[in-house]
Amino acid sequence: MKYLIIAALLASVGLLIYWRLRPYLNVARRVFNLFREARRLTRPDDTAATPAPRSATHANERLTRCASCGTWLPASRALVLRSSPATYCSHACLERSAGNERKTRVGRQ
Ligand SMILES: [Zn+2]
């Protein structure tokens, strides 16, 4: 019976110590995570995830077709008219297309 009381007392004391140390343990864990994060940021080559997004965005770039000559080109390099959804690869194609449009309009009248 005496041993049981001692065991219960030790358990409660251990629990109390753990309860008291819990905030410090949390802080220690946070500091450890911070160090790990800092190491990851200083050495970005370690993670295989960093080069992936760049190549993904490059590969996902939308291709548009020139309305005049039919050449496929990246959307970032295409000439886009505000008045129409058509895209062109160069100013020459844009002018040629505008000329054709004017001609067909004249022909219809
Ligand atoms: Zn073109």
Task: Explain the overall architecture.
The chain is mostly helical. It folds into 2 domains: about 1-45; about 60-109, no CATH class. It has 3 helices and 4 strands. The protein has helices spanning about 1-40, 50-60, 90-109, and strands at about 65, 70-75, 80, 85-90. The strands form 2 sheets. It has a two-stranded antiparallel ribbon. A hairpin with a 6-residue loop joins strand 1 and strand 2. The longest helix has about 40 residues, at about 1-40. It starts with a helix and ends with a helix. The mean pLDDT is about 80. Bound molecules: zinc ion. Zinc ion binds near residues 89 and 90.
Summarize the structure.
With 109 residues, the protein is mostly helical. The protein is built from three helices and four strands, in the order ααββββα. It folds into two domains: 2-43; 62-108, no CATH class.
What is the secondary structure topology, with strand pairs?
Blueprint: H1 2-42, H2 51-59, E1 63-65, E2 72-74, E3 79-80, E4 87-88, H3 91-108
Antiparallel strand pairs: 1-2, 3-4
The structure holds zinc ion (ZN).
Residues 66, 68-69, 71, 88-90, 93 line the site of zinc ion.
Alpha carbon gyration radius:
35 Å
- The coarse silhouette is rod-shaped
Identify the strand order in the major beta sheet. Answer: 1-2
N→C terminal distance:
113 Å
In terms of structural class, how would the helical and strand content be classed?
A: mainly alpha
Q: Report the biggest beta sheet as strand number plus sense, adding barrel if it closes.
A: 2 strands, antiparallel
- Small-molecule components bound: zinc ion
Helix tally equals: 3
Query: What is the number of independent domains?
Result: 2
Task: Spell the H/E element sequence.
Answer: HHEEEEH
Q: Would you identify the regions where 5 or more consecutive residues have pLDDT less than 50?
A: none
Strand content: 5-15%
Average per-residue pLDDT, rounded, comes to 81
Q: Helix fraction?
A: 55-70%
